[in-house]
Amino acid sequence: MTRVDLYRNVHMGQRARLFALATELGAADVEAVPELADRCLAMTQELREHADHEDSFIHKLLRERAPLAADALDGEHVRLDAAFIALDARARALPGTEVESRPEAQHALYLALNEVISAYLAHLYAEETVAMPALWQSAGDEELAAVLVAFRASRTPEEALTDLHRMLPALPPEPRTAIVRGIVEAAGEQADSTLASVCATLSSDQRDRLYEDLGVSEAR
Predict the structure, then answer these.
(1) In a 3-state reduction of DSSP, which class is residue 219?
(2) How far, in Å, CA of 111 to CA of 105, rounded?
(3) Whole-angstrom Cα distance, residue 84 to residue 135?
């Protein structure tokens, strides 16, 4: 039986978007770099907020039930926080860089972003291979599901939609369809518009597969 996993889906979305940002920044024309620097700042802000959410809704339970696992996660924060600060500093400084110095500033920002990715991947791995197994051993699925319910209740409709837009493109078809089916069924008379909104960040191939799995037409 598949256990409730508090990390898997959101982490897949984070990885996909971090990798995409690094690829874009590395290949960008120098004129596009200031906009990408802003996206780097938005990403570190998002990751900090995500950490706050985990502390509030997941890691409180982890500290109660598996304090050694919680300590292991805390050890990841030192490198991660330092990487965030370094990336933010590079991103904020870039718009004021002289034009002739922009290529080197771009590469320095690229390296700082990849340092964040390196530190963050280690953190995600610790959560997925240390924290989540510890929670599976110490808490039942009803209790873990209640964590997800509490988190979702704390989100505004706009925030919840943003969460889906960030996560769904990175998921395999079956879990993506299961998530969207539950949302659409709960939407009642707003099912059509809800489906369209949720699909906004999917590729055309992903959207076609989703509609096929849901048994609806593109015109719905």
Answers:
(1) coil
(2) 10
(3) 28
Q: How far apart are CA 63 and CA 135, in angstroms?
A: 10
Which residue, among 78, 72, 80, has the nearest Cα to 44 in the 3D structure? 80
Query: To 10 degrees, the CA torsion angle through 23, 26, 31, 33?
Result: 80
Q: Cite the beta strand spans of the chain per DSSP E.
A: none
The span from the CA of 220 to the CA of 160, in Å, is 23
C-alpha 96: how far from its chain's center?
30
Tell how far CA 156 is from the center of its chain.
17
Provide the residue-wise pLDDT of the chain in tens; the chain has 220 residues: 789 999 999 999 999 999 999 999 999 999 999 999 999 999 999 999 999 999 999 999 999 999 999 988 887 788 899 999 999 999 999 989 998 999 999 999 999 999 999 999 999 999 999 999 999 999 999 999 999 999 999 999 999 999 999 999 999 999 999 999 999 999 999 999 999 999 999 999 999 999 999 998 764 4
